[in-house]
Amino acid sequence: MTDFPQSPYEPPPSPLDYTSAPLPQKRGPSVWISWFVIWLIVILISVVLPILGGRKRLAQKPSTTQPSVPTTPAGPAPTPEAELKIASRLAIGCHELTRSDPEASQAAMPMFVNQLTVTPKNPHEKLCAAVVIGDIQGSDAAIKQIDAIASDLKGADQHVAPPLKKLYTKGVSALDEDEKDLIKTNLGWYGELALVHDASPDSPERQALVHPAVRSIVVFTVAGVVIGFALLTGVVLFIIALIRISSGKIVRRLSVPGTNPAPFVEAFAIYLFLFALGALLISLLVSGDTLQWEIGLIILLPVAYFWPRWRGVEHDEIIRTLGWHTGRGVLTEMASGILAYITGLPIIFVGLMILVILVMISHAQPSHPIQQEAVSTPAQIIKLYFVASVWAPIFEESMFRGALFGYMRSRWRWLASASLVALIFALIHPQGWTTVPALFAIAIVLAGIREWRGSLIGSITAHALHNGVLMTIFILGVA
Fold first, then answer.
1. How far, in Å, CA of 217 to CA of 213, rounded?
2. Phi-psi region for residue 288, left (φ > 0), alpha (ψ -120 to 50) or beta?
3. What is the mean pLDDT of residues 179-200?
4. Quick one: pLDDT at residue 114?
């Protein structure tokens, strides 16, 4: 297997020292203006918009006189959140896989049922969870759940509850076609699951519904085993890396800007402002699927090069600072990025554990806009993979670990530089405040890769691998 030649832009290697500080640089007015723009946009995205969104939801909160969903019998109900969807699929999948082993089912199912009782965030989700509980524990359990939430149901859910209770009391055959359509229309997959309550476990109708649930639990099980093994490997590699760094055996290939680093933070501020403006205009002017329009914002990427060039920075210095070179060869850099990502998994794991604790304490619901994207056709799946594993890694690594991190390393030590860049990276992502520790940890690992390799190829590869794994789990296990 051949590799590309070593890049002429790669600086001479030096011992990997995460504590040494660069020479201080004088800050001009442009730097202060750039940081003002950067923090203004970060605050707007991470603080102001979530507050406004929360107030909007509160203003729309159902009262005793105004239902939260249409009151027409066929009116659509809210879509259950991904967390309930995952809990439901895992419960049904485990139930199907343990049908032939009553002891295993009796041992496992109480855990899943308990999860179904604590996961729902509103009466509609509780109604959906009642269907799953009924499928696992029988009609009496479903009726008990429906009766417990009957007084809280509003709008379309009020019309669904009586025929649903009738189904569990007298059987599916007791329902007329209008009642079946009502259940199916307002509860979606959960309604279809309720309508096969009386069917045999091996019936084609039931198998078609529970197959995605079985697939989900298989996917999550396999993913858990693979990720667990990778994490153990990462712990070993992380210890080895610390020893080699302390002994000076791992060299740093990052090149920091010379006497004129300011254009790089200016370029990042311009990019962030234009990206936020473009995303706002798209949300206001485009209805429906906006993802394909947001992909077009990659036209902002040349700002990272042309702004510093216009400000007088030499071509070679721009390429080295941004990491837009092949380092010691494309394949070598890609392999190094994968190895370094696995080495950094313990750090990412710590970030994920903090996320889990925050979610448990706050009961906040992390989410990502990509959860709302359709994945029913190959073209839609390809689009999501392109965004997650090509567009985002190239775009974000060039701007965050390229322009901004390159500027910060001209002023601060590695840990301070990586932490500030990681904080900005985490705050402007739309997953919610509880995900900040996890995103921060991922960004720290990516900054470490950039420091080690110099070329962006390693951090782009690691970023693409991380997003690709999550996207695969999402598509096979949740979507």
1. 6
2. left
3. 88
4. 82
Here the tokens at position 320 are 């080295």
Mean local confidence (pLDDT), 442-462: 96
Burial class (CB in 10 A: 0-12, 13-18, 19+), 477: buried
State the amino acid at position 348 in one-letter form.
I
Instruction: For 58-80, write each residue's pLDDT tens digit.
Output: 444 443 333 333 333 333 444 55
Nearest to 132 by CA among 191, 52, 50: 191
The helix (run of H) or strand (run of E) holding residue 172 is none
Query: In which region does residue 242 sit, left (phi positive, over 0), alpha (psi from -120 to 50) or beta (all else)?
Result: alpha
pLDDT per residue over 375-393, tens digit each? 667 888 888 889 889 999 9
pLDDT band (50, 70, 90) for residue 371: low
Residue 255 near residue 454, CB atoms below 8 Å: yes
DSSP letter string, 87-118:
HHHHHHHHHHHTTT-HHHHHHHHHHHHHHHHH
Q: How far apart are CA 198 and CA 357, in angstroms?
A: 40
Burial class of residue 108 (count of CB atoms within 10 Å of its CB; 0-12, 13-18, 19+): middle
Question: Residue 52 has what pLDDT?
Answer: 66
**For the whole model, what pTM was predicted?**
0.82
Q: Work out the angle at residue 318's Cα, subtended by the Cα atoms of residues 315 and 324, and round it to the nearest 5 degrees.
A: 105
Alpha carbon separation from 160 to 124, 131, 185, 250 (Å, rounded):
10, 12, 10, 64
- Non-local (6+) Cβ contacts of 283 within 8 A are 290
Contact (CB, 8 A) for 181 and 165: no
Q: Domains of the chain: which residue ranges? A: 82-215, 251-477
The stretches of 98-203 forming alpha helices (DSSP H) are: 102-118, 123-137, 139-149, 156-170, 177-187, 189-195
Residue with tokens 């900040």: 436
What is the DSSP track for 362-373?
Answer: H------GGGGS
